[in-house]
Amino acid sequence: MVVKVLLVDDHLVVLKGLQYFLEVHDEIEIVGQARDGAEALQKIEQLMPDVVLMDIQMPGMDGIEATRQITERYPEVKVIMLTSFSDRDSVIPAIREGAVGYQLKDVEPDVLVDTMIAVMQGNRTFHPEATNQLVLNVRGEREAVNELEQLTAKEKEVLYHITLGESNKEIADRLFISEKTVKTHITSILGKLELPDRTKAAVYALRNKWFES
Predict the structure, then answer these.
(1) Which of 89, 95, 123, 213 is most deeply packed, by most CB within 10 A?
(2) pTM for the complete prediction?
(3) 155: DSSP letter
């Protein structure tokens, strides 16, 4: 099996290095290069690669948005992130948008080739640091759910209205309770979530998508 590969990175030296190291492998065919996400989409339309090796941080359309569009428009094309970043804000969005592989740029060429072959066989392959971020993310989601369950039904209602940007008086009017009772609920919410103020509580609830339908 020969895997047709499109390389996407905004640094020419990276593209040349990847081509040099990968084209010596008989099972890999480099069919093209792109310097950003928008160009990658154009090249996919023209070249129909099997695999896209995608950088994350690029000018214009970044790798995460490009991955989302590739997954949506060309579901048969496999996207592997090849980046210098292994932080949560890089790993989780990339995988959420459809990346089936995640490797760092210090990866050995043979490992990168094995990753491409693996995804073509229907597997997902991630660098250990990316896997660690996935584990931490799942653990964090579970902890967030447990924190929400600590709140009473009325506290959840109050917190929901806080996320809408409503004042204590507006919340009191909506829930037919006094402002003093609203303040009592907020104090309890902040204590249970270990947060300093209502703004932080709203941000925390929104980030964890507690009130999304």
Answers:
(1) 95
(2) 0.63
(3) H
In this predicted model, what pLDDT tens digit does every residue of 13-39 receive, in sequence order? Answer: 999 999 999 989 999 999 999 999 999
Residue predicted with more confidence, 75 or 91: 75
Same domain, residue pair 16 and 116: yes
Q: Which domain holds residue 70?
A: 3-134
The count of structural domains within the chain is 2
- 118 with 190, same domain: the answer is no
- Pair 195, 201: CB distance under 8 Å: yes
List the structure tokens of 66: 């490009």
Domain shared by 116 and 38, yes or no: yes
Q: Could you tell me which of 205, 190, 189, 154 has the C-alpha nearest to residue 175?
A: 154
143 within some domain: no
Are residues 188 and 121 part of one domain? no
The residue among 194, 73, 90, 169 whose CA lies nearest residue 134 is 90
Q: Count Cβ atoms within 10 A of the Cβ of residue 110 and give its class: 0-12 exposed, 13-18 middle, 19 or more buried.
A: exposed
